[in-house]
């Protein structure tokens, strides 16, 4: 039943977001843009690889819940009704996303995984799926592990996942939406577009998935008034095909070990011998 629902949501997403982007486009962009076939491969194949990682996370978190978690905490969580569990699960889940996402940016070896997501140069709703399976799995460690370990109900966790699922499409969508006075509370498409910007000041900012107030709280917010990000992507060569993107972090790590130089998060890694890499993007940072 759940699989059926996911397939249904997958069919529904383009029906909502393609016309939405045409009506409220932030930038002029074609529907059939560059990299569309690679994104379709991510859409169809990534789920199987992520499923393995998520199953392991849930099994480990359930073990922690049953053998390590004090029974008083377990009782306190399970005593909460759904209407209280669901919002708490959403707040905890997004705090996990914030920190795992930040680690993916600031730890050089982790950046090699996350660079796959930031390789997208024409941002739209489908860019949400352009993520290495290890990246998705690591994000789920941050968000799902604490929820399952603390013993939140399946309904509360399901509510968090459904909201996060639709929010990911929306945050990447090529639409003009900034949320006005709520921009420092909720993650808008404008907020996440800045996260993908290749401009120097915007780098390693705006990590939250749902609540931008986490970036306000932890000092990583970048939302300049009256400006829009214009260029996206990273400043080092990246592959453009699905299988080459899957292999990218492994070749990059091998190259880092060879050079014994764990360089900064986004410094050019042009010396890396990564098969299938494209030429560097034409635009320069800053
Ligand atoms: Zn990121
Ligand atoms: Zn993104």
UniProtKB/TrEMBL annotation:
The lineage of its organism: Bacteria, Pseudomonadati, Pseudomonadota, Alphaproteobacteria, Hyphomicrobiales. The chain crosses the membrane at residues 41-64, 144-166, 240-257. Keywords: Membrane, Oxidoreductase, Transmembrane, Transmembrane helix. The keyword Transmembrane applies. This is Sterol desaturase family protein. It comes from the Bacteria. Pfam families: FA_hydroxylase. It is found in: Membrane. GO terms for molecular function: oxidoreductase activity. PANTHER family: STEROL DESATURASE. Residues 264-286 are annotated as: Disordered. It comes from Bradyrhizobium brasilense. Its EC number is 1.-.-.-. Its main location: membrane. Residues 88-220 form the Fatty acid hydroxylase domain. The keyword Membrane applies.
């Amino acid at each position: 039943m759940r699989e059926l629902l996911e397939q249904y949501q997958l069919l529904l997403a383009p029906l909502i977001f393609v016309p939405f982007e045409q009506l409220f486009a932030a930038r002029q962009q074609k529907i059939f843009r560059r990299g569309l076939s690679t994104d379709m491969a991510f859409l169809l194949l990534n789920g199987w690889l992520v499923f393995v990682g998520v199953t392991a996370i849930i099994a480990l978190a359930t073990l922690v819940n049953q053998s390590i978690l004090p029974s008083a905490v377990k009782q306190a969580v399970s005593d909460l009704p759904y209407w209280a569990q669901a919002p708490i699960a959403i707040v905890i889940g997004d705090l996990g996303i914030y920190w795992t996402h930040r680690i993916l940016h600031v730890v050089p070896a982790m950046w090699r995984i996350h660079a796959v997501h930031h390789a997208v140069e024409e941002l739209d709703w489908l860019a949400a799926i352009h993520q290495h399976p290890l990246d998705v799995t690591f994000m789920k460690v941050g968000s799902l592990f604490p929820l399952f370990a603390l013993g939140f109900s399946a309904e509360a966790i399901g509510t968090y996942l459904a909201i996060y699922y639709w929010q990911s499409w929306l945050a990447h969508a090529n639409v003009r939406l900034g949320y006005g006075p709520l921009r420092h509370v909720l993650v808008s498409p404008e907020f996440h577009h800045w996260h993908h910007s290749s401009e120097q000041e915007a780098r390693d900012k705006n990590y939250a998935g749902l609540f931008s107030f986490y970036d306000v709280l932890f000092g990583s917010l970048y939302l300049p008034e009256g400006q829009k990000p214009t260029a996206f992507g990273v400043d080092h060569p990246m592959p453009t095909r699905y299988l080459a993107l899957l292999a990218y972090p492994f070749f990059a790590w091998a190259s880092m070990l060879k050079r014994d130089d764990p360089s900064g998060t986004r410094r050019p890694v042009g010396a890396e011998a990564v098969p299938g890499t494209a030429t560097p993007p034409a635009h320069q940072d800053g």
